[in-house]
Structure formats: structure tokens, C-alpha cells
Amino acid sequence: MSDTRRRVKVYTLNEDRQWDDRGTGHVSSTFVERLKGISLLVRAESDGSLLLESKISPNTAYQKQQDTLIVWSEADNYDLALSFQEKAGCDEIWEKICQVQGKDPALDITQDPIDESEEERFEEIPETSHLVELPPCELSRLEEIADLVTSVLSSPIRREKLALALMSEGYIKKLLGLFRVCEDLDNREGLHHLYEIVRGVLFLNKAALFEVMFSDDCIMDVVGCLEYDPALVQPKRHREFLTKTAKFKEVIPITDSELRQKIHQTYRVQYIQDIILPTPSVFEENFLSTLTSFIFFNKVEIVSMLQEDEKFLTEVFAQLTDEATEDSKRRELVNFVKEFCAFSQTLQPQNRDAFFKTLANLGILPALEIVMGMDDLQVRAAATDIFSYLVEFSPSMVREFVMQEPQQTDDDVLLINVVIKQMICDSDPELGGAVQLMGLLRTLIDPENMLASTNKTEKTEFLSFFYKYCMHVLTAPLLANTAHDKISKDLQEGSTKINPVCPGEEFNATENHPTDKAYNFQTAQLLALILELLTFCVEHHTYHIKTYIMNKDLLRRVLVLMNSKHTFLALCALRFMRRIIGLKDEYYNRYIIKGNLFEPVINALLDNGTRYNLLNSATIELFEFIKVEDVKSLIAHIVDNFYKALESIEYVQTFKGLKGRYEQEKDRQSQRLNRYRRDARSMDEDEELLFNDDDDDDESEAVEKSRMEEDFADSYGKYMEAKKGAANGANGANNNGKAAVSPPASQAVTPNNSSASSVKTVALPATPVVKTAMVGLVDYPDDEDEEEEEEEEEEEQSPRKRPRLSS
């Protein structure tokens, strides 16, 4: 019993004036030798670690709120709160605090928070001003009361004194009694004074006063007082809205009366804060911090109470997925779950984790799979919001559920395919829902949040699943709108193209442009969203998307959109190609070259003419990237096939630069080939000259070394004989090595017949032999950079480039 009574949550107030949950544990009050005083200790219930160790200081202002909260400040910007599970535990600790400070436990605050500036200011004020005396609660004294309440707001100490006076005399209920009298008498002046009084009491920012004002028998009178703003000609009708317009819908009957009362109270207090009270000024924004905390803790309590009622939530999900449930009832159930999830955002991470795990165990994802496929737009929109909460909380949880589905169901009803179809079939002209769903899909397929530490195979397994079961659904509208062989026929007949994903929806195919099938604005926006997602895949999925693009010839289909009259769609297609080229992947480069896929891009650039717009700039940037990064295979392809069409573009130097790169590469290759064709005879002559020079040097020193000269001459003669004997074999070997890189014409200038005959009989070696033949060649000092590039290019050189450069 004591464990339950002492069970608390520890909260701290962050810089945004929001309460952060520091954990759940059990509180005790113990003498701590190190702190030399009685202290509050909270140890975590999970592992016994110390969550809080706070000495009860005699001068610290402790405040009890809502019977189960104790709040205090330990520094200027460090507020703490203990939220007790039971009132008895709160009372027990409160009595201990009051005992240490020598205060009466009947009070809800132990100290008057006075900072130095306040103390100095009030030293100048007579002693009698510290005592706030409330005028009698009478109609004739309302103006005096309003002036008093307004005057104390600038002084923290006087706010405290006034709050104590209002509480001790039961003044609030007396004021609300006067409100009913004024309203019966239609006393507008008195009602205006009551507005100022109630607004001022709210700005006192005291939880004890809120407990009275927001109780069931007072809150509607408080709302009534706030209707009579003196700045308004006619009073607002907030009570009428709260009692008649706003309906409390119990999708499943709530049997807990305390829970029901807490829900009503929270809704009405939130309404007061958001709707009735004017937006506070910079100087007033802290006046309502306790009101924000009041709402926050109420929401935490509501979520906790609902979460603990397993019978209630089980019934909610059972009716949600029951085919016999009426549409109106299902709509209310979905809206309830949506609001439930919204309330959960007030929870701290560890509590939110438990909350969503509870929903997952109850079957939230299978339920969403059903309701997201329904025809009711409101139900689908609410289900999308719930799905976004789940994805934001744990993408891995959603992925894990999705990957288990193929064993149990058809591809058409997979959750991700349901989401994709809802994105594609969004009827909103602005595609608001589609944009939201596209963001959720991107989160699910983002490898960055696929944590290897949790599941080492999650990335591989999920991406394989996605490309196998879902990618064809995502790309279906794109492929349907870029089918070359059907466009002209459809357009000639003025027919419409059925959306392959959304049965019953048609694409308008009566546009005048020969490659625009459906491009009313909404369809163009949809294709732009799909392209944005595919571009993301290119950047992050490498192998899977590369295989898909090449198998489906996807880039060719995408580049059909370069002809769209919607420039933003053409730019999306261009961006897709730019991301592919940006990878500098030679497989992609060969695919682009083989398919001649620069043609639609260059045609779009030429069709754009001299217009200086985003399409022009983006296209030129694409070619500038190729030039700067020196992507040799693409440079050669562009110059060989398109330079004549592009050479007239002189307002940028991009295309001349591409031509220059192309010529430099041709010259470099030509010099390299010529260098490798040096014949064996010239090499031997160089070697003999080298030895002759050495012989001359030795003769110039022979005056004092005649014996050494004779020995050297003998050995040199023997060396040259051996050298001439080995020269023929060496020449033949050199020619064999050169045959792999030299054209047939080089045989005509070979002086040695034996080497020429060896070329005919030896098969051409593979490329690695070329590297071996090049090792023993002379290094030229001016070619150091070229040889470094040469090693890098060997692996990346495309098959198309080799025969051109060696011909």
C-alpha cells in the first residue's frame, strides 16, 4: 500500500515552459548527511537509480496543486514537480515539507516568493500595504474590487497575498453569485467589472484558485463572466456553444465518472485558454503558465486512465474493425482514436513508448489497413493522421508489421499499398493528403532510420519487400502517362485514359501537346510527387533502384515528361536525371549512352530558346556538372552526338568547355598511344649511347687507373656479346606487349622480322597484360599527372570509349 501511495512522476519545466517527464519512482523524505538536512529522494521503480535528491530548504516556496501535485523552484530557471498517484501520498510528503519549514499543512503554499528587486521595492512601501484587504463582495463595490485585482498584477508578492485572501474567504463563489444577479438585472457595468475581475484572477496564475474556478459548479459562471468584454458591443455566447453546440460523444460508454468529469473539465479549460482569453502580450505571457500546466497534467491523467482501461480500448478496436459497424459510428471511433493519439503527444518519450505499444498490441495497424481503404473521406483523413502519429513514433514498428503481411494477404491490400493508393487517388485539388502521405512513405523507406543495432537485416529485407510488392503500384500512374505507343492514338480519338490505380477515375487526355496525356494541374502535381519520391530512392537506395530503373527503362519514361507544358513537372524529370548523373556511376552512364537519353533534355533546352528561366539554368547546370567532374564517357557521347546542335549556345562557356575537355582527352590518348609505339631498335640505340657515354667517362680517368681500364674493357666486351645475344629475344617480347594496345599499322614499321612474325602467331592478350607491358616503359617527367589519371581510368573506362580512342 505504501508503495502505491509513494509512487510519483518527476517533472522539470523546460525552456519552452513545457513539463518534461524525468521518470517514475517512489518518494521518501530522509536526512541526507551530505546535504545536512531533510531531503526529498525519488528512486526509479525500474532500476532503483536516483531520480531526484532535493534538500527541503527553509526558504523555498513549495506549492500544492490539484491535491496530487507539489511544485517548487530550486533555482531561477529550474522548476520541479512531483505528481503523486494517490492524494494520501501527496498529503504525507506535504506535511513533512511543512514540518521542516514550520508551516501550516492546511495552506497550499509555504513561502512568499520574493526576489531581491521585490524586497528592495517593497522596503519603500508602508507596512500596511502588505496586507491585502478585500472589499465586501457587493454590487456597489465591484469597481473597487476590479481596480484592486488589476493593480496587484505587476507585483508578485501582492499577487500571492491577494490569492491567499481570495482562497481563505471563499471569495470566488461570492463573486460568481454576484455575476448571476448582474445578469438577471442586465447590469452591464457590473458585468464589465466582473470580466476584469475574473480575467485578473486567472492572471494570478495560482493552481489553487483554478481548482475552485474550474470545478463543475463554477466553470460555466466563469465562462459567463468572460463573455462580457467591455471592448465588445455585444457579448459572446460561449456558454451556448459549450452547452448546445459542442457535444460530448461517447463512442464507447465511459463508466468512470471521474474520467468523464476530467474530460469535460479539460475541454472547457482548453476552450477558455484558446478561444476566450485574448492572446497575451509579451508582458503577460507568463501569467498563464500554471493554466498551461493545469491542462497538461489533465491530459496526462486522461491518457493514463484510458490506457489502463483495457476493456474500453479493446471494445473500441473491436467495433472499429467490425464490418457490421455503421459508417457514422466508425467515423466517431476513428476520430476518438485520433484525438487519443493527439493527447498522447503530451506524454514524455518513455510514456509515449508504452502508449503506442499498447495500441500496437490492440491491433491499431490492421484496423488502419481497413479504415484507410474506405470511401468516407473524413474517416480516411482521420486514419491518415493516426498513421502519421505511428510512423513518427516508430517507423520500424510499422515496417515490421508490413513485412509480415505478404504471408497472410494479397498484394492489393498491403498497408503500404493502401497508403500509396490513397496518395494517388487523393481527390483534393491541392493534393494536401497526398503530400502528407508522401512524407510518411519517405520516412518508411529512409535507410537513415533503419537502425542496424536493432535489426541488422531490416534495411535489406524491407527494401527488397518494397521493390517487390509496392514499387509497381507507386510508378503505375507515371508509366501509364508516358506510354509512347498509345499517346497519339488516344489523343487523336480524344479519349480518356483510365487511372490504373484508382478505378473509376479518368485522366483528361484531350490536351493539344503530343506528349501530355492527363496534365491537368492535379495530375501533374501527382506525377511530381511520385518523381520526388523516386529521386529520393535514387539518392538513398543504390542497388534496388538501379535494378528497377534499368529493368523498367524508367529514366526514358520519366524524360517523356520533359515535354510537359507544366514547367515544374519537366524540372522534376530533369532533377531525377541529375541525381542519377550525380552518382557518377558508370553503369548508369552506359545506360544513358546506350539509350541516347540526353536527346529529350537537349530538345527541351533548344525548345526553350533564349528564355532565361529555371528550366534553362537547371539544364545548363547538369552539363556544367558533367564538365567540372570530367565524366569522360558522357562528355564523349555529348560532343560526338550533340555538339553541332549546342555550339551556337555562347552565353555560357559550358558547351565549349565540354568540347575542350573532349579534345584534351583525345590528345592525351593519342600521345599515350604514340609513346607506347616506340620500337625496339630506337630503344637499343639509346642504351648503346648510354654505355658509350660511360666508356668515354672511364677513358678520361684512365691516366691513373690503367689496370682497372683493361679489366673493364675485357668485361665490357664479354657483356656486349651477351647483350647482343639476348637482344633478339627482348625485342620479340616487347613487340608482343605492344600488340595489345597498338593498331595493326604499327607492324609495318617494325624492323625485326622475327618480332613481326611473333605478332601473327600470338593471340591478343587481355587488358591486364597491357598494364604489365607498360610497367617497364620510360617515365617522362612531364607525364606524371597523366599516369596517375591512367590508373584511375582503367577500371572506369567504358567499353564504348576504348575502340574510339585506339582507332
UniProtKB/TrEMBL annotation:
<dbReference type="GO" id="GO:0030289">
    <property type="term" value="C:protein phosphatase 4 complex"/>
</dbReference>
<dbReference type="InterPro" id="IPR011993">
    <property type="entry name" value="PH-like_dom_sf"/>
</dbReference>
<feature type="compositionally biased region" description="Polar residues">
    <location>
        <begin position="744"/>
        <end position="760"/>
    </location>
</feature>
<feature type="region of interest" description="Disordered">
    <location>
        <begin position="684"/>
        <end position="710"/>
    </location>
</feature>
<comment type="function">
    <text>Regulatory subunit of serine/threonine-protein phosphatase 4.</text>
</comment>
<dbReference type="InterPro" id="IPR006887">
    <property type="entry name" value="P4R3-like_central_dom"/>
</dbReference>
<feature type="domain" description="PP4R3 EVH1-like">
    <location>
        <begin position="5"/>
        <end position="101"/>
    </location>
</feature>
<comment type="similarity">
    <text>Belongs to the SMEK family.</text>
</comment>
<dbReference type="Pfam" id="PF04802">
    <property type="entry name" value="PP4R3"/>
</dbReference>
<dbReference type="GO" id="GO:0005654">
    <property type="term" value="C:nucleoplasm"/>
</dbReference>
<dbReference type="GO" id="GO:0006974">
    <property type="term" value="P:DNA damage response"/>
</dbReference>
<feature type="region of interest" description="Disordered">
    <location>
        <begin position="726"/>
        <end position="807"/>
    </location>
</feature>
<protein>
    <recommendedName>
        <fullName>Serine/threonine-protein phosphatase 4 regulatory subunit 3</fullName>
    </recommendedName>
</protein>
<dbReference type="InterPro" id="IPR051137">
    <property type="entry name" value="PP4R3-like"/>
</dbReference>
<feature type="compositionally biased region" description="Low complexity">
    <location>
        <begin position="726"/>
        <end position="740"/>
    </location>
</feature>
<feature type="domain" description="Serine/threonine-protein phosphatase 4 regulatory subunit 3-like central">
    <location>
        <begin position="144"/>
        <end position="664"/>
    </location>
</feature>
<feature type="compositionally biased region" description="Acidic residues">
    <location>
        <begin position="684"/>
        <end position="701"/>
    </location>
</feature>
<dbReference type="InterPro" id="IPR016024">
    <property type="entry name" value="ARM-type_fold"/>
</dbReference>
<dbReference type="Pfam" id="PF22972">
    <property type="entry name" value="EVH1_PP4R3"/>
</dbReference>
<dbReference type="GO" id="GO:0072542">
    <property type="term" value="F:protein phosphatase activator activity"/>
</dbReference>
<dbReference type="InterPro" id="IPR055236">
    <property type="entry name" value="EVH1_PP4R3"/>
</dbReference>
<feature type="compositionally biased region" description="Acidic residues">
    <location>
        <begin position="780"/>
        <end position="796"/>
    </location>
</feature>
